[in-house]
Amino acid sequence: MRFVLKALLVLTILAVAVAGAIAVSLVNRGISTKAAPTWVEVQIARAMRHLAIPRADRERTSPVPASPKTVQAGLEHFADHCAICHGNDGSGDVQIGRNLYPKAPDLRDADTQTLSDGELFHIIENGVRLTGMPGWSTGTPEGEEASWHLVHFIRHLPRVTDQELARMEELNPKSPHEFREEEEMRRFLEGEEAKPPAASPKHPHSGGHDD
Ligand code: HEC
Prior knowledge:
It is built from 11 helices and no strands. The protein is an all-alpha fold. The protein has 2 domains: 39-171, Cytochrome c-like domain (Cytochrome Bc1 Complex, Chain D, domain 2); 174-211, no CATH class. The structure holds heme C. Heme C is lined by residues 45, 49, 78, 81-82, 84-86, 96, 100, 102, 104-105, 107, 111-112, 115, 120, 123-124, 128, 131-134, 136, 150, 154.
């Protein structure tokens, strides 16, 4: 009994110390998402994530073979749903990806490429709690197939070509405003309109950064 009480006391003191350390760290570092997580935080988060993915899922292999067609399907899906945070090239070097905490990682790097297909699939389907990464599963066989296409495309990312990136730009979601501008430009180029559309100022949050 005395041992249990002692253990409880030690645990309580530890818990208070950890909570205190977190509080001090929050006060000192603030809650800005602009800061980069420390190396230790990254290692702990990745190790926990790895452990949180069931082994059976990590060892799953793709029922959909990798082929130019499935990579292309993944590319199209990635341009539409993922590039907003990960960038078409997977670098994560886009406004949203850079300013998340944790940042969207460079999917071309070894850290991602050494994850198993099953682990990538699990992350795409389920997302990662407490990060910006959403879970995309729809609970349908078509949805799962699309996630395997994405896995194949992520494997292809280190070798993505300029031509493929140009194709992705066409598929990136556009705001109604960008859509209107493009439509006006198209009409002008086809001779339907006499004057070229005036280039309007960019949204203050995207001007000078990237699109
Ligand atoms: C709203 C932003 C956002 C969107 C949209 C998004 N992601 Fe992510 N993604 C993240 C963030 C942030 C992480 C880092 C998570 C972490 O640190 O565990 C991440 C992590 C990942 C990882 C794990 C890579 C690694 O090495 O940790 C994969 C794979 C991934 N995303 C694929 C995708 C795919 C495929 C899509 C589209 C279907 C997508 N993501 C859409 C923000 C996003």
